[in-house]
Amino acid sequence: MSPSTLSPTPTLSPIAFPDVALPESARRLRAEVRAFADEERARGTVLGRPDSWLAGWDPGFSRRCAERGWVGMALPTEYGGAGRGFLDRYVVIEELLAAGAPVSAHWVSDRQAGPSILQHGTEEQRRFFLPRIAAGQCFFSIGMSEKNSGSDLASVATRAERTADGWRLTGTKMWTGGAHVNDYAIVLARTDDAEDKHAGLSQFIVDLRAPGVRIEPIRLMSGEHRFNAVHLEGVDVPDGMLLGERGSGWKQVTGELAFERSGPERYLSTFPLLVSLLRELEQRSATAEQLVQVGILTARLHSVRQLSLGVAAALDAGHSPDTQAALVKDLGTRLEGALVDTVRSILPTPADSHATPGSHPELLAFALLHSPGYTLRGGTNEILRGIITRGLEQH
Ligand SMILES: Cc1cc2nc3c(=O)[nH]c(=O)nc-3n(C[C@H](O)[C@H](O)[C@H](O)COP(=O)(O)OP(=O)(O)OC[C@H]3O[C@@H](n4cnc5c(N)ncnc54)[C@H](O)[C@@H]3O)c2cc1C
């Protein structure tokens, strides 16, 4: 990003959203990604499905994105990344999500694990993991949640005990997306007892195929297997796989959440359904009311997108826009649900998960069955509003 695209923000207030105009290079990049998505659509890999960042697992597609330099785009070139910053990355993921492309294999590595290893990892960890992430050859899961400590993340009970040359992890992580198909998880565990529950936590890079890792599927309402309970039954993790400092786990995970919460995936999960609605409306003469509702959705999408871009620009400038990210996620995920409700109300088509794949009734059923998760995953809206309130109080 060139500095001229972003108003200077030496210290970012918790409610500042830098005003961003995407540079000319982003326009060219967007055209390249669209052409790529068209090619992939023609070969049958881009199916225009909702929630493709969570449900579209296709490692071949991820590798082809990586070959074009679109995985690990914001990582420095010395670690195999493209060194192109968060705004270029934004354009790529926005286009892929809008197309409903199957990006979930590399999603967490690209969004979170890569930046986190870059920031907190040892030089050895950076040299080992980052080039593999950027090549689309190493996929990560998030191992934060647990059964009795979802929103209250600081109460995690998974323990890491010291051994002669590392750590032994015991506990169960819940809702671990992709653990059955990915390579590693970044696991938050308790390394020390402390009065302050935010202290004594650490992060570990855990090989999901290591002895003692037992992965139990949790099926979605649709029957899909995307999530798991990951039982860590005395898993030995070498010293070199402690990520960051012992005891700094809380600070590290809360820092990561700005990456997790603010991106276009928080308002584009159901965008392919809007595209499908427009196709349906094209085939009949749309009523004024239908057009008004489409206009309202489009205006809301545009506003949330502008805020989300502001967070990407703040990340690019080295800020940690946690409050802004929480706000974008709250607004964006509510919009995702509202989009499904509006589509149903203005075009009363019965949802049918057995209809032809890619047809409107099938896409509607898919979006509906996934919709309970929109406002939960990555932190519930109630929790986000707590973060926003605290941010506003500080201001
Ligand atoms: C689709 C999906 C994907 C996910 N993927 C992952 C993943 O890959 N890795 C991972 O680690 N986790 C993942 N999660 C877990 C997710 O982050 C948690 O579900 C979420 O943080 C909420 O935790 P919980 O489900 O235990 O609910 P709880 O924490 O038990 O909350 C239940 C309800 O109480 C409310 N609540 C709780 N505390 C408060 C409070 N203090 N004030 C007001 N309201 C409160 C919550 O908002 C919620 O409505 C995923 C979840 C979903 C649904």
Describe this structure in words.
Residues 142-231 form the Acyl-CoA oxidase/dehydrogenase middle domain. It holds the Pfam family Acyl-CoA_dh_M. This is Acyl-CoA dehydrogenase. Keywords: FAD, Flavoprotein, Oxidoreductase. Residues 276-392 form the Acyl-CoA dehydrogenase/oxidase C-terminal domain. By secondary structure, the chain is an alpha+beta fold. The protein folds into three domains: 24-138, Acyl-CoA dehydrogenase/oxidase, N-terminal domain (Butyryl-Coa Dehydrogenase, subunit A, domain 1), CATH 1.10.540; 142-247, Butyryl-CoA Dehydrogenase, subunit A, domain 2 (Beta Barrel); 261-394, Butyryl-CoA Dehydrogenase, subunit A, domain 3. The protein is 46% helix and 13% strand. It is built from 13 helices and eight strands. The chain has helices at residues 24-42, 52-55, 59-67, 85-98, 104-120, 123-134, 249-261, 265-268, 271-282, 288-316, 322-346, 360-370, 381-394, and strands at residues 140-143, 159-162, 166-173, 184-190, 201-207, 213-219, 225-238, 242-243. The chain has a four-stranded mixed beta sheet, with helices on one face. It has a four-stranded antiparallel beta sheet with strand order 2-3-7-6, with no helix packed on it. α1 runs parallel beside α4 and α9 (271-282) runs antiparallel to α12 (360-370). The longest helix is centred in the C-terminal third of the chain and has 29 residues, at 288-316. Mean pLDDT is 93; it is low at 1-9. The chain binds flavin-adenine dinucleotide (FAD). Flavin-adenine dinucleotide is lined by residues 141-145, 150-151, 175-177, 373, 376-380, 382-383.
